[in-house]
Each structure stands twice: as C-alpha cells, then as structure tokens.
Amino acid sequence: MSKPTAALVFLIAAFSYFLFSPSPKPHYYHTLFLSSPFSDNASIASNLRTLTRRPHVAGSLANAEAASHVLSSFASSSLKPRVAAYKVSLTYPVHRSLSLTPTESSKSIITFSLEQEHLGDNPYADEVTPTFHAYAKSGDVSGPAAYANYGRVEDFAGLNVSGAVVVARYGKIYRGDIVRNAYEAGAVGVVIYTDERDYGGEECFPESRWMPPSGVQVGTVYNGLGDPTTPGWASVDGCERLSEEEVELRGDSPGIPSLPISAADAEVILKSVVGGVGPGPGILNLSYVGKTVLAEIENVIGVIEGGEEPDRYVILGNHRDAWTFGAVDPNSGTAVLLEIAQRLDKLQKRGWKPRRTIILCNWDAEEYALIGSTEWVEDNRQMLASRAVAYLNADCAVSGPGFRASATPQLDDLIKQVAKEVRDPDNTTQSIYESWIRSNNSGVIGRLGSGASDYASFVQHVGVPVVDMLFGGGYPVYHSMYDDFTWMEKFGDPMFHRHVAIASVLGMVALRLADDEFLPFNYTSYASELKKSAEDLEKEMLGHSIDISPLIKSIQDLSTAAQEINIEKEEGVKGALRVRELNDRLMMAERALTDRDGLSGRTWYKHLVYGPSKYDDYGSKSFPGVDDAIDNAKRVKTKASWEHVQHEMWRVSRAIRHASLVLKEAQFFTKAHY
Ligand SMILES: *[C@@H]1O[C@H](CO)[C@@H](O)[C@H](O)[C@H]1NC(C)=O
Ligand SMILES: *[C@@H]1O[C@H](CO)[C@@H](O)[C@H](O)[C@H]1NC(C)=O
Ligand SMILES: *[C@@H]1O[C@H](CO)[C@@H](O)[C@H](O)[C@H]1NC(C)=O
Ligand SMILES: *[C@@H]1O[C@H](CO)[C@@H](O)[C@H](O)[C@H]1NC(C)=O
Ligand SMILES: *[C@@H]1O[C@H](CO)[C@@H](O)[C@H](O)[C@H]1NC(C)=O
Ligand SMILES: *[C@@H]1O[C@H](CO)[C@@H](O)[C@H](O)[C@H]1NC(C)=O
C-alpha cells in the first residue's frame, strides 16, 4: 500500500471512530499525536528560521522579539499564554584585550583581535555579542602563559601556575569550574579555547560541521544557579537583593578574569610556552571589563488545563535565549516545544482534554545561570512541591543523529516504551528504541545531577522527576557564532525529521504522564539504579571502615515498596479517590529524596541522590553529599572526616527510607477503608 493510501485509510478509520464513539479513549488521541498528518517538519523549520534570524542573548531586544514569537505561537495553539517576568542581574562585555609577549627579551607584542571570522552569508553576523565569559571578573592581569589541558583538578597536579595566566581547553568540565580550579591553583587569569582535537575536522563550517579556527565558545563562568543577587528566592520586582560585595562573598563568582579564545589564537600562545606546558616564557596580558545590568527577563508560559485533575502539573520546558543565533542551543528545542503545542492544539480540536494539566514553559536567561527556570521554580517552590508530576526538558534538542535520554529512574520504563513507538528518522526500518540499543550508547539512560540545563532546579531543588532528551549530543560549533540556521539545515537536521521525532517522543511522554489513569512511574528501576550506585560506592570504600549496610538496607526497602505499589496498580484499585491517593504516593516519592538542609556547604541543592559533582557542574553524581565527604576525607585524612562520610551515608539512607514509606500504602488506609 502506498503511503498516501495508508494515510487515507487511517484518517477514515480515525474519523469513523471519532463519529461513532462518544468519548474516545486517551490511546486513540495518543495514536493521532504520533500520526504523520499531525507532524509538520515545514513548520518546525519555519519556526526555527524565525527564532534564529538574529542573535538573541538574554536581555536584548532581539530576544524580546523571539519571546513575542513564542507568545503568539502559543496563543495560536490555544494555550492561553502569559509572561512570567523577573528582574535579574546579567553581565555584558565592555572592554576586552589580550596580548602576548612571546619571549622575555622580545619587544614585539602580538595583540589578538578576539573576533570570529564572518563565514557563510549570515546577514546578522555583526550583531553577535563580542566573545566573553558571563560574570567574568573585571581586571587587568599579566603573567607567564601556562598550559593546563582541560583545567580539571588533576590537570593542575604537579603544575606550578602561581602568578600565571592559564591556557586551558574546553571539553571535559564546566568552564566555571576551569576558572575556579585555576584560581585555586594560584593563577591570575585564564583563557579557554576550543582545541581542534576536540572540536575540529578536516574542513570546517560552512563546508562541514566542524568549528573554524577562529571560532570561539562563549558561556558563563558563574558557579551558582539563578540570579546571583537573589540566591534561593525569586527575583521579583522590589524584592530583597544582595549587594555586589555580598554576591562576591558567596564565592560562586569567579576570583580571576577570564576570556574564551579561538583555536588559532591558542596555537600562537602555546608556541611561546616551553615544553608545551610552561609557565612562560611567553607573557599574556589579559584585560576585561564587564558591565552588570538589572534586566527584565521573560519566561513564556502556556497552559492546557486538565479535565479531571487540573491541580496536577506535567511541565515541558526549553529555553529561548542564545549566546548567538542558537539554532541548536536552544532553539531546536524551542521549535520542538512549538511543534508539540501545535499537535496538542490539533488534539484539542478533535475533542481531547488531558486528565492532568500540561504546562509549556519557554525559559529566558538559561545561558547565564539557568536563571529563568530557577527564578520561576523558586517563585513557585511550594506549589510545585505539592502539584508537579514531572518536568520534561528539551535544550539542544537536535544536533545530529542518535537518540539520547537522561532521567530520574522511575521514568526509564516510560521512555523506553515511547521510544519503541516512534520510527528512527535516520533508519525508518526500525524504531528509535532499536537504533538506540544498537548504538554506542546502547540504550543507557543518563542521570540528571548536573547543572547543565533547566531541569536542575526542578529535580535538585524541589525533587520533581525529570527527563531530558535529544538527537545528537556534543556538537562542534557549540556557543559559537556558527550555531545558526544554515548549520542546522546543512548538518544538524537537513529535513527536520529528527526534530519531528524528538517532538513525538517528548510529547508522547508528556501525554502519557498527563492522561494515564495511573502515573507511569516504575520505582523498581529507581531501586536497581541506586543498588548499582551503592555497589560502586562499596568498592570505593574498600579498606575504609565505612558501614554501607544502612544504605543497602534502605534500597532493599525501596525495592520492596516499589514492587508492592506496582502490584497494587496491576490489581487495579477502584474509585477516583483511591486512584488519586495511589498516584500521589508515586508523585511524592521523589520529593522524599530531598532534604530541607540540603548538601553540606551547598544547601540550595536539596536532592541527596542526584546532584552535580563539586568539581564539575556538568558532571552528575549519585549521592553527591557522600561524594563530597569522601573527597574531603581523602584530602584531609582525619578520623573526623571519615566519620563525616558515615554521617552523609546515614543521611542518604534515611532519605531513601522516607521515599519507600511514601510509596507504601498507609497503614490506617487499609483496603477495608474503601
Ligand atoms: C611557583 O612559581 C612561583 C612564581 O614563579 C614561585 O615564586 C614559587 O616559588 C613556585 N612554587 C613552587 C612550589 O615551586
Ligand atoms: C596590559 O595591557 C593593557 C592595555 O590593554 C595595558 O594598559 C597594561 O599596561 C598592560 N599590562 C602589562 C603588565 O603589560
Ligand atoms: C537499519 O535498521 C536495520 C534493522 O531494522 C538494520 O539491519 C540496518 O543495518 C540499519 N541501517 C543502518 C544504516 O544502520
Ligand atoms: C562508536 O564507538 C566506536 C568504538 O569506540 C567508535 O569508533 C565510533 O566512532 C563510535 N561511533 C559513534 C557514532 O560515536
Ligand atoms: C519535510 O520532509 C519532506 C520529506 O518527508 C521533505 O521533502 C521536505 O523538504 C522537508 N521539509 C523541510 C523544510 O526540510
Ligand atoms: C518495572 O521495572 C522492572 C525493571 O526494573 C520491570 O521488571 C517491571 O516489569 C517494571 N514494571 C512495570 C509495571 O512496568
């Protein structure tokens, strides 16, 4: 049967079902959601083109225009959108200079232009913000250049960078941690470059997907989340704010100036460094002046109210602000969000109404410090803690082939189920799931402890289950001026079918969470995942007198409680209240993994199971509190420091026990009561 005939038969069947069945089941609408007449690659491409026409950094006029585009698209998808605005502290570059005196005796100073070459034919290339690090410290520094590889803690071992300007390459850890590590090692300044070994290929953009030699990855070097002047509370108009001095005292701001530079400039600098490491004899002179502005940012929020449980929220989000044009980061995700909005609108026109409320969020100022989502979560913390079912994130949604997902583990099963229902856009003979398990990544679901995107506050501050998914992965022109529509159209997703596919998977996960009578959470996976992490920890603790049994015991309890609630679901409880009660246990179990005191020394992070690594904000850790304590104990090697490891082990064990108690049927709620 040819494709059009199949589509026609499907439509007739769907239409007759619609005519003769008074209220179609959610499954009928879910099938429609995935059907080809519902998906629209042309509209995705057109939205992406509009969103990425001009560079739109947070706080700019162009970004406000992009916000209006999202607002009007949401409105035309009958989403009743509103803007949640915040006043936040952003920084922009005012003056940058970098020069090199190649040898101590040399008088010829090389001054770098710090410009990315205009390649391709983007008419708005001139509007790109000069390359800089957001929240970088202003200052004039000079010192011998010293190469510190990826700038990890271990890269500084055996290196004396005291008084030096560190040259590090991007690629392994968060750039804010590179600057912090350099500062702690005694450096006076840092330049970070994109090495061809990590981001280059034989040819470069616009001929191929690779980063040109003049390309620069900009980005933030702030080490906290949210507006630096309102740590832990929302930046609403007229609110309490920290002064600049108070912000500095908190220690999340970089201690030394830094600049991002190109591979071409780094090559020149590294030629002046003895043995490729230095320090010196080349002397770098780095000067940076930034300005801090209290700017208005806009989160655009659209809502589809649930029919039966309007106070249960399934939240989908993506940010809009971009360092440059943002075709991959983040507007592939915005285009996907708008596609989902459109498909949900089509479903509503056919009579569908979700059981629970679906909220679509388009965040602002993510690039600076996940600011838009963090302020919104801080603003709505208690409301979200009592009503949010899950948060689904799309950021760099498409940059190439190959599906990847990260999630809190109770969502693993659902992601796999949905991935089985959608064809792989790069090999339509098989499902995304089949391609995924055959890929290098072999169907492994990542964990979301890191602070790399807008899911962070949801899971790490409030304990909301989260998912993040994408096609592709790391891409070479990340945060450079070449991340534009041309790059996407030529290399990222030439037919926009990967965009369609990720919208299908993400949208379907949202639909299942919004419509299923019983929340599709499986905590058995959570328990197995925790067991694996605990076993890793046990190996690490060999030879130290740390008792890991409380942790093992709490995980066993969680596993039992998870099996019991799965059986309750299978047996099918009856009655709206009883169903609601069971779902509330499923929804609230993740919350129990948070602790009001948070991680020691990083109290904003409330989740005791998933959090960022202390030395790499991009690195996700299981049991981050235990991990911090182990790091410390290995360094200071005192009895008290090892006792602290044991204390952290007890804390996480108690949290996991709380989660299993939440999952369990309450004893005074025995079945006899119903
Ligand atoms: C590190 O280098 C600085 C500056 O060159 C020097 O003063 C200091 O003595 C060195 N430290 C060590 C431990 O070698
Ligand atoms: C570094 O360069 C600035 C100009 O950009 C200049 O004012 C300053 O004197 C230089 N510092 C050193 C130590 O060469
Ligand atoms: C596409 O999928 C089929 C299995 O359905 C597999 O045999 C084939 O190798 C795949 N093609 C590519 C290019 O990966
Ligand atoms: C998969 O892994 C192999 C072996 O490590 C590597 O050569 C290949 O490039 C990888 N493929 C992708 C698509 O990453
Ligand atoms: C959408 O997909 C069709 C093929 O299914 C293709 O012909 C068309 O060029 C695509 N549209 C865009 C904008 O890429
Ligand atoms: C829950 O996950 C486990 C594996 O972790 C699996 O064996 C079980 O079938 C799943 N249960 C449901 C109801 O999906």
TrEMBL record:
Its cofactor is Zn(2+). The keyword Repressor does not apply. It catalyses: Release of an unsubstituted, C-terminal glutamyl residue, typically from Ac-Asp-Glu or folylpoly-gamma-glutamates. It is a single-pass type II membrane protein. It is found in: Endoplasmic reticulum membrane. Pfam families: PA (PF02225), Peptidase_M28 (PF04389), TFR_dimer (PF04253). Its main location: endoplasmic reticulum. Its EC number is 3.4.17.21. Belongs to the peptidase M28 family. M28B subfamily. This is glutamate carboxypeptidase II. It comes from Brassica carinata (Ethiopian mustard).
